[in-house]
Structure to design on (118 residues):
């Protein structure tokens, strides 16, 4: 079980870093989302991977730690809000620069932008 979770965390973080290094805005947003999912799974696994145990003290002999579960729940909400903000920011950048490159450079050589420069 621990090996499977470690492999899943590794795949999420690796693919997130790969997508963050792309030059387009949408893969960068998806990469940041995958990185946050990898961190969430990591935090969740820090509470201990126990089967059929509750996170309420006093309900079982060996309860799981509820703090990582609360941290992950909070991180999911914050991650969703940040993803929505990044999507809106990327759409505005694409609307202003007419390209979806992260650095704002033009895809089509020779096309004139609003300033009249080639």
């Amino acid at each position: 079980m621990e090996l499977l979770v470690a492999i899943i965390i590794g795949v999420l973080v690796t693919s997130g870093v790969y997508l963050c290094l792309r030059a387009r805005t949408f893969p960068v947003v998806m990469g940041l989302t995958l990185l946050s999912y990898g961190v969430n799974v990591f935090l969740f696994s820090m509470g201990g991977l126990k089967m059929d145990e509750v996170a309420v003290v006093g309900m079982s002999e060996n309860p799981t730690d509820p703090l990582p579960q609360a941290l992950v729940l909070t991180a999911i909400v914050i991650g969703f809000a940040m993803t929505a903000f990044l999507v809106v920011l990327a759409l505005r950048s694409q609307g202003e620069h007419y390209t979806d490159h992260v650095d704002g450079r033009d895809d089509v050589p020779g096309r004139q932008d609003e300033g009249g420069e080639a």
